[in-house]
Specification:
The protein has 535 residues and is mainly α. It is 64% helix and 0% strand. This is NPH3 domain-containing protein.
Length: 535
């Protein structure tokens, strides 16, 4: 081997020619198997170069400094160029074999060559599939370590691959890694390391958007395995970037524990929703600025999806309704999730009202203040007619929420009446938006005054019931009884103003009907009796 290996030749030259020479080749890449094949090559014996041992033989040839014109390194390079790196499975095998040969394989450029070959074959398969199903190549990536996959992702970006290709590759690799994490829940340390490494190699959302469902499952795995705060925060921001694509089941999976039975991670869900709201607000502000710049320059501004926030609000309402069934869920946790979306983001509050009602039904022991805190996440004035009708009869709701729902109906009736008077007084050319706004403002002001009066009456009622009510004694009517009657009468008169079907309307209607009936009978002319004669 001395004529073919510069490493051995230099080692022998340093020693006494008559003495035995011992060489330390423990650092030889590829170990004993690679040295055996190198020795067989030097002695002219036959052996096979495969995709599995090609990288080890190339590193061993470089370590032994085999510079013969027909040396082993040249033979291996020819094999890589003509066979091993021309097919995706064999290129993945070469790249995987380099993982045990670092840093020698990195210094020789084998890792870069293999990763570039894998990226090239992936691009070709995406454009011109050679097998079925078309995405078969994604399973080939499962054998790679996270560091090797990152090399492939970098090579795909350098080749300007379609973002969908990069997203499919990253999603498939993350799916396979996630399956490995869930396969053995006992090995927590290895699971944590695998999740953190997979998250580190995921491409950015701008390069390749990962599906929201997969990101939610990765976030759940990161929280369950107690991954680092950096990894969890990275996943939370990734989920927030595509939250409008997530379903209620995806977010609910994040909130559940490892067994998927109990609610444990509501804070994670709240942070994801808050990050989305903050991101959407910043995008809306930037969109407004870009529109102003575009109006000055004549260009086109980037638009923000107006339905994204409303879609996320509906998803959050569904999640809150599911979380509300957990008996151990604290009020602060429920309010944190349900109230993470601004109230103005919901056109209707029927969904959040359903979640509130479920929570109150699951927790019947709440007092009035606690129920008001639960109801603070919804606006009773934004309930639909059916929801307001249900809320007005819902004994689980606090009194303030019921009155607010009734107020809205009164406001609608008054606004409709004001609108009818305006229609009778003005013609179509005079009924403008400003006129309607003024009529609405007058109705709101009147309703606010009635609201204030009712609040004072309710406060007096509560004070009277709590401390001043005493049982009457004797058979005669006492001054306290008269005071109670007058007080309840004032409350009744105040509440009657909220009911459109009381206050004299019914009496007037029936009276008018009776008057019209009497008038009609008065104008009836009885027919004359005629005598029939037979002539």
């Amino acid at each position: 081997m001395v004529p073919r290996c510069g490493y051995i030749r230099r080692a022998i030259a340093k020693e006494d020619p008559s003495a035995a020479v011992e060489l330390d080749i423990s650092a030889l890449p590829g170990g004993a198997d690679a040295f055996e094949k190198a020795a067989r090559y030097c002695y002219g014996a036959n052996f096979e170069i495969t995709a599995l041992n090609a990288a080890a033989l190339r590193c061993a040839a470089a370590f032994l400094d085999m510079q013969h014109p027909a040396d082993l390194a040249r033979r291996v390079d020819e094999f890589l160029a003509q066979a091993a790196l021309r097919a995706l499975p064999s290129a993945v095998t070469v790249l995987r074999s380099c993982e045990a040969l670092l840093p020698a394989a990195e210094e020789l450029g084998l890792v870069r060559r293999a990763a570039d070959a894998v990226a090239l074959r992936i691009c070709n398969e995406a454009l011109f599939p050679t097998r079925t199903p078309p995405g078969w190549w994604t399973t080939e990536l499962a054998a790679l370590s996270p560091a090797s996959f990152q090399k492939v992702a970098t090579a795909l970006r350098c080749r300007r691959a379609d973002p969908k290709v990069l997203a499919n590759a990253a999603s498939a690799y993350a799916e396979l890694a996630l399956a490995e994490v869930l396969a053995d829940p006992r090995d927590r340390e290895d699971q944590r390391a695998l999740v953190e490494s997979v998250v580190d190699v995921l491409p950015s959302a701008a390069d390749a958007p990962i599906p929201a469902a997969l990101l939610c499952r990765l976030l759940h795995a990161a929280v369950t395995t107690e991954a680092s705060a950096k990894t969890c925060r990275d996943l939370e921001l990734r989920v927030a970037a595509v939250l409008e694509q997530a379903t209620a089941g995806d977010l609910l999976g994040v909130a559940l524990d490892g067994a998927g039975e109990r609610v444990r991670n509501t804070d994670t869900v709240r942070r994801v929703i808050a990050a989305f709201v903050e991101r959407h607000a910043a995008a809306s502000t930037e969109s407004g600025r870009s529109r102003r710049r575009a109006s000055l320059s004549g260009g086109r501004a980037a638009e923000v999806d107006p339905g994204a926030m409303e879609k996320v609000a509906r998803t959050v309402d569904e999640v809150a309704a599911e979380l509300a069934t957990e008996e151990s869920l604290a009020i602060s946790k429920f309010v944190g999730v349900a109230g993470a979306v601004p109230k103005e983001a919901r056109a209707k509050h029927d969904g959040v009202y359903r979640a509130v009602d479920i929570y109150l039904k699951t927790h019947p022991a709440l007092d009035e203040m606690e129920r008001e805190k639960v109801c603070s996440v919804m606006d009773p004035l934004k309930l639909s007619y059916q929801a307001r009708l249900h809320a007005s009869q819902n004994r689980r709701l606090p009194l303030q929420a019921v009155l607010s729902a009734l107020y809205y109906d009164q406001l609608k009736l008054r606004s409709a009446g004001a609108g009818g008077e305006d229609d009778d007084r003005w013609d179509d050319t005079q009924t403008t938006a400003a006129g309607k706004a003024r009529a609405q403002a007058r109705a709101d002001a009147a309703l606010a005054r009635e609201n204030e009066a009712l609040r004072s009456e309710l406060a007096r009622m509560r004070a009277y019931v709590s401390g001043t009510q005493q049982p009457s004694r004797g058979s005669g009517s006492s001054p306290s009884a008269k005071k109670k009657a007058s007080f309840l009468g004032s409350v009744s008169r105040t509440l009657s103003r909220l009911n459109p079907f009381k206050g004299g309307w019914a009496k007037q209607d029936t009276a008018s009907i009776a008057d019209s009936s009497r008038d009609a009978m008065a104008h009836v002319v009885k027919p004359k009796r005629r005598r029939s004669s037979i002539s």
